[in-house]
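RECORD TYPE: inverse folding
INPUT: structure tokens
STRUCTURE:
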């Protein structure tokens, strides 16, 4: 009995060590702490932008349009950007994108201070940031393996999400205070300054020569794009995964568009309450990211994909039924946990199995599904909320997601499992039609 506390302590220390094991890589440490600072600034401006647009228009549809403008460039540019990420040093690309994003935020702050921050100006700024993110997102995701290692990629991706959601937890609450005490413009100014941290981290990294020089592209850029699409389509498990990612992007993730309206309809209905809702959502997401980081490689990825989806759907439907701040906060914790558990598992399922030479292109396709289609989900969310009200918009999206998830689950459970070994070859991943046929026959017998 006396050994039990010691065993518990060792288990806790082991989980803590596993949770942060990617930080043993110097390059990843630099990126991790730089991103932590930069992403707090990002959430300052995300919160300020949504609240500013809603304050100017009091219209849910305008929120959807603004989100559309911020994401639509990813739809058209992300797959092309993936070929660039596979050809040129990723660090150099990220220095350019991060510098551009910082300058853009500083210009928006100036526009607000000088009284030129109209909806048109904010829309142009959102479109510019979307274009920057179209190159930044797939490059940054594919860069994880180079900073850490393929063995630690699951943990590193989960820690990336932890950084994002820790900032998501702190940023909105801090933004509410800054907006109330100082100004909305200050949120954009601080965001622009925060990019300096990640840029310094990128410049301090050290790489082997193979990461410094550009690779020779052997085919046309169009053929290179097609190669990435063909690889993903040839694997039925990946086809089903991308189907779910698209469904979550269109009908799930867009719930964030209407959160200012949810906050506005609560007792009080001010920027502080909006920040509290976003912080609760971030807390659930952070919990999901940290648990995924600690249990990387120990959880059944197929099961966690559908558990995350299930929790999200139930919590989203519940959010449509409540009218108090406390209940909304609790449900948003569940929503944040469910959506991040799903997306981390989907991301790492691809990252651990994609060949190095295709990583930029495959992750650009993931970015296309993850963020490129988001503008259409945003427009749909804004239209549904404007026509039927926010609660009904949440109910409709929850029902559609359930209708997508159930058939996908029935399809996937018939297929052989992908191996969890990171070094699996492309040939081992290509499941033949005969294997699929045999799996279907076994499931029916």
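DESIGNED SEQUENCE:
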């Amino acid at each position: 009995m006396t050994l039990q506390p010691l065993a518990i302590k060792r288990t806790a220390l082991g989980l803590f060590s596993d949770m942060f094991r990617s930080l043993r890589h110097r390059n990843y440490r630099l990126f991790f702490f730089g991103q932590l600072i930069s992403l707090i600034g990002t959430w300052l401006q995300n919160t300020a932008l949504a609240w500013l647009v809603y304050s100017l228009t009091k219209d849910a549809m305008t929120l959807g349009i603004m989100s559309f403008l911020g994401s639509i460039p990813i739809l058209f540019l992300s797959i092309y950007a993936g070929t660039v990420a596979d050809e040129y040093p990723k660090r150099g690309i990220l220095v350019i994108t991060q510098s551009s994003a910082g300058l853009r935020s500083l210009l928006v702050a100036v526009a607000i201070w000088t009284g030129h921050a109209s909806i048109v100006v904010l829309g142009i700024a959102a479109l510019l940031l979307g274009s920057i993110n179209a190159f930044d997102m797939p490059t940054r995701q594919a860069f994880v393996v180079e900073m850490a290692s393929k063995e630690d990629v699951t943990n590193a991706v989960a820690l990336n999400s932890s950084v994002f959601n820790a900032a998501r937890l702190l940023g909105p609450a801090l933004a509410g205070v800054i907006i109330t005490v100082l100004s909305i413009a200050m949120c954009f100014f601080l965001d622009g300054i925060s990019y300096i941290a990640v840029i310094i981290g990128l410049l301090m990294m050290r790489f082997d020569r193979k990461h410094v020089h550009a690779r020779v592209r052997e085919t046309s850029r169009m053929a290179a794009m097609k190669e990435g699409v063909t690889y993903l389509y040839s694997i039925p498990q990946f086809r089903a995964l991308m189907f779910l990612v698209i469904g979550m992007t269109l009908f799930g993730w867009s719930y964030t568009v209407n959160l200012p309206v949810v906050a506005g309809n609560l007792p009080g209905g001010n920027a502080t309450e909006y920040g509290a809702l976003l912080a609760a959502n971030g807390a659930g997401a952070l919990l999901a990211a940290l648990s995924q980081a600690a249990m990387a490689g120990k959880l059944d990825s197929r099961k966690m994909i559908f558990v995350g989806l299930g929790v999200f759907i139930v919590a989203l439907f519940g959010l449509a039924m409540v009218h108090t701040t406390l209940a909304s906060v609790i449900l948003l914790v569940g929503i944040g946990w469910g959506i991040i558990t799903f997306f981390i598992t989907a991301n790492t399922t691809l990252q651990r199995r994609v060949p190095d030479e295709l990583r930029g292109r495959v992750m650009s396709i993931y970015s296309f599904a993850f963020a490129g289609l988001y503008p259409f989900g945003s427009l749909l969310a804004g239209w549904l909320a404007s026509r039927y009200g926010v609660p009904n918009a949440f109910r409709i999206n929850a029902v559609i997601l359930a209708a997508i998830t159930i058939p996908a689950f029935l399809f996937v459970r018939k297929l052989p499992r992908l191996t969890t070994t990171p070094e699996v070859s492309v040939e081992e991943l290509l499941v033949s039609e005969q294997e699929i046929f045999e799996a279907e026959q076994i499931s029916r017998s």
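NOTES: The chain has one domain: 13-205+219-444.
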